[in-house]
Write a structure and sequence with these properties.
4 helices, mainly alpha, Non-ribosomal Peptide Synthetase Peptidyl Carrier Protein, Chain A, 90 residues
Length: 90
């Protein structure tokens, strides 16, 4: 079962990746759960990670603690989306 509101959170994650990383809307729209992010997207370097997380906090009204950030969370689009859904809809 998909939590109510998860589609909105997913759209927000896509918008943040598009805006912060300067990716085209078409490219981000093609992301699926297994699309690799950190290490695969040259635009997503360590500085960009900070921007993405800050923007997610602002747009979703969440707080991301330092100890919650790890490589697995940023490994794929699906992992980042699941993290954001878990934070925003709890």
């Amino acid at each position: 079962m998909i939590p109510e509101g998860s589609n909105e959170v997913s759209a927000t994650v896509r918008a943040v990746l598009r805006d912060v990383l300067g990716l085209s809307a078409d490219r981000v729209a093609a992301f699926h759960d297994q699309t690799p992010l950190f290490g695969a997207l040259p635009e997503l370097d360590s500085m960009a990670v900070a921007g993405v997380l800050t923007e997610l906090e602002d747009r979703l009204g969440i707080v991301i603690e330092d100890d919650e950030v790890d490589g697995e969370m940023l490994e794929t689009f699906g992992a980042l989306k699941a993290f954001a859904v878990g934070k925003a809809l709890v």
